[in-house]
User: Fold L-rhamnose catabolism isomerase from Neorhizobium turbinariae.
Amino acid sequence: MSEMKIAADVIAAENEARAQALDAEYAALGETLARRGIEIDNITDKVSEFSVAVPSWGVGTGGTRFARFPGGGEPRGIFDKLDDCAVIHQLTRTTPTVSLHIPWDKADPKELKAKGEALGLGFDAMNSNTFSDAVGQSQSYKYGSLSHTDAATRAQAIEHNLECIEIGNAIGSKALTVWIGDGSNFPGQSHFTRQFERYLASMAEIYKALPDDWRLFSEHKMYEPAFYSTVVQDWGTNYLIANTLGPKAFCLVDLGHHAPNTNIEMIVARLIQFGKLGGFHFNDSKYGDDDLDAGAIDPYRLFLVFNELVDAEHRGVDGFHPAHMIDQSHNVTDPIESLMASANEIRRAYAQALLVDRAALEGYQDENDALMASETLKRAYRTDVEPILAQARRRAGGAIDPIATYRASGYRKKVTMERPASVSGGGGIV
Ligand code: LRH
Ligand code: MN
Ligand code: MN
Assistant:
């Protein structure tokens, strides 16, 4: 039995107050879906099996571009972060794993593993950091890391990634995500081809050290912190990387890392078609890499991404098991609340995508009936699946209403008393 951060009787009392309404709403939705030939419990079971990893860096207040306004009870380090992640999972039953970032989360792997086990949490993909300088490192990443012109700097960046694999191996992770900020700020500053050759050679070294049952995810981003050119700037370059490195290399799609209005769901479809979709960093975006809460700006786009994933599942695409991770930064909300709401939004998009009548859609596509094809997607999207999500949580021992239950539990107040006040200031991740 894992350590419970929220008392079971709080969850029970909060659920008790909402159980009758949920049962009525679930029964009504069940009737609606039955008329469409869908058995509600089948959808609820599928939703229950769907999980998404929480980023360790998401539970602290972020948004460090101009200033940071920390809330009460900010986690002091990785062990506090894991406690907060456990709360998210206990109430949502959606986030059983945490994605670590090294060196921010560096600790004795044995202690990390023991803490995870005590809380009932596992570890998802490891993330390396060669986009900022760590205290005491000998070479600076100011002019790049894995693609740096200097061999010693590249060697240091490679070595750091190997260490991430080693730590990950000791705690049960099965993947490494590499995002780098390498690029240039002026035309002419870097030779595009030579820079990319150096990157590929460095990544090949990392790939060589990957255990057989691991996957290597490269994450593209259009710009920032390099503002003229970025080495891994789009999914085309990313595909070339994964293809060049080999069968354990895949592309990671962070929803906020594209030009505005990019058709992300189509990128997802292409990567699925060519067997190189590794996984996601879910978040939402209005202008750039905003790291806003999943579904906060454009929930229909999130649904359309899931429509591609469910379509691939439906077609039985070979070896299809993308990693689901959240990558967000919370500036004006309690990060625990934002992450619970986001996990819920991600499951919502999945549940809605499960409701798409795929046979009808295929028929409309074949007949070139654009309007009815669009309506088929909209019909699924317009369905309020909240009773399914709430039922899935309740059946797994979570909360019918995670945010209300969290507020009722007084967890934030408790950790605010235990953890010293965090200082505000700038600087941090981009
Ligand atoms: C930088 C970034 C990227 C990484 C994360 C740790 O753009 O947001 O998405 O995954 O930092
Ligand atoms: Mn990301
Ligand atoms: Mn990002």
